[in-house]
């Protein structure tokens, strides 16, 4: 039995619920989920939705609680209305959202706009803010894709540091060891970095995957979870698991299409995934929306039978 076969014999995540996936004219539907995160205080799910230009907030049952509207924020380069890319939620419920301006837009816990943070040190230039995440001590990390950098901020917005990275920081996550996981589209790779940007590990694609395009990433106390959404090989869509030293473990689930955002609970028991089907639908897996998976722990008898 291989290492990944052993992992998958002992760990399984099964679909428990899905929502915002059926096309409708109301505000609930997601028509281009870019990423998501869960509120650590109450489990609410915030999804950056591209075409509606909103961050939509749902409870764990899929009820739409409110929206953070981006119609008023213009791209400084093109003059077009901006689109949200990623979202992080602080311990007090404040939303920090990246978009197509050099500014992080901040909304309070009542979903009202509060203020902007100038994140890019290249504010006069065109910036592509993207991945955003909090460190253990509450500092805010913001990825800028065009110039491959990560800025470090206090929660009041003060920029404390900026360091360059080797890959585009499209999605960011923090490990329990307070190291940074970077999931990049350009090139299609993943790295684990120190808080000063030093490369600690480069994660290799699973050997079974021929087209690797890592997307949303999240860490529990046990594993790194990352999506693969290369639409040229739909059978390789999935959420894949790694150790914090970059070793591949196995597949959490393949019951997804074009997974974009990934958020996992600290105990690994709940896995939340946003998906955005963009041209290669897979029968039975749905299209857009959010899926919630729960972990099934196999007992020794089941493990022996599956092995």
Secondary structure: elements and pairs:
Elements: H1 3-10, E1 11-19, E2 33-38, E3 45-49, E4 54-58, E5 64-69, E6 86-89, E7 95-98, E8 103-107, E9 113-118, E10 129-134, E11 140-144, E12 149-153, E13 159-164, E14 171-174, E15 180-185, E16 188-193, E17 199-203, E18 214-219, E19 224-228, E20 238-242, E21 248-253, E22 259-264, E23 270-275, E24 290-297, H2 300-306
Antiparallel strand pairs: 1-24, 2-3, 3-4, 4-5, 6-7, 7-8, 8-9, 10-11, 11-12, 12-13, 14-15, 15-16, 16-17, 18-19, 19-20, 20-21, 22-23, 23-24
Q: What would you say this structure looks like, in words?
A:
By secondary structure, the chain is mainly beta. It has one domain: Neuraminidase, CATH 2.120.10. The radius of gyration is 18 Å and the shape is globular. It contains 2 helices and 24 strands. Residues 76-80 and 300-307 have low confidence and may be disordered. Helix content is 5%, strand content 44%. A 4-stranded antiparallel beta sheet has the order 1-24-23-22. The protein has a 4-stranded antiparallel beta sheet with strand order 2-3-4-5, with no helix packed on it. A 4-stranded antiparallel beta sheet has the order 6-7-8-9, with no helix packed on it. Strand 18 and strand 19 form a beta hairpin.
């Amino acid at each position: 039995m291989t290492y990944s076969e052993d992992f998958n014999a002992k760990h399984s995540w099964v679909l428990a619920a899905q929502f915002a996936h059926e096309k409708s004219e109301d505000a609930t539907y997601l028509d281009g989920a870019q990423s998501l995160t869960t509120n650590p205080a109450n489990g609410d799910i915030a999804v950056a939705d591209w075409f509606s230009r909103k961050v939509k907030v749902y409870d764990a049952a899929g009820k739409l609680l409110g929206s953070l509207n981006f119609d008023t924020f213009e791209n400084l380069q093109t003059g077009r209305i901006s689109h949200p890319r990623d979202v992080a939620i602080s311990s007090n419920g404040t939303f920090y959202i990246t978009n197509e301006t050099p500014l992080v837009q901040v909304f309070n816990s009542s979903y009202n706009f509060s203020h902007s943070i100038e994140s890019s040190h290249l504010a006069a230039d065109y910036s592509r803010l993207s991945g955003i995440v909090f460190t253990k001590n509450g500092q805010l990390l913001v990825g800028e894709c065009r110039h491959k950098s990560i800025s470090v901020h206090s929660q009041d917005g003060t920029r404390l540091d900026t360091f360059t990275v080797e890959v585009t920081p499209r999605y960011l996550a923090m490990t329990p060891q307070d190291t940074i996981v970077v999931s990049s589209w350009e090139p299609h790779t993943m790295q684990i970095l120190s808080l000063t940007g030093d490369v600690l590990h480069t994660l290799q694609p699973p050997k079974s995957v021929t087209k690797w395009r890592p997307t949303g990433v999240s860490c529990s106390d046990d594993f790194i979870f990352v999506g693969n959404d290369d639409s040229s090989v739909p059978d390789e869509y999935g959420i894949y698991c790694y150790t914090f030293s970059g070793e591949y473990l196995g597949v959490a689930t393949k019951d997804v299409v074009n997974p974009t955002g990934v958020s996992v609970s600290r105990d690994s028991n709940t896995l939340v995934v946003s998906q955005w089907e963009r041209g290669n639908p897979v029968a039975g897996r749905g299209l857009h929306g959010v899926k919630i998976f729960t972990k099934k722990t196999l007992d020794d008898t089941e493990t022996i039978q599956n092995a």
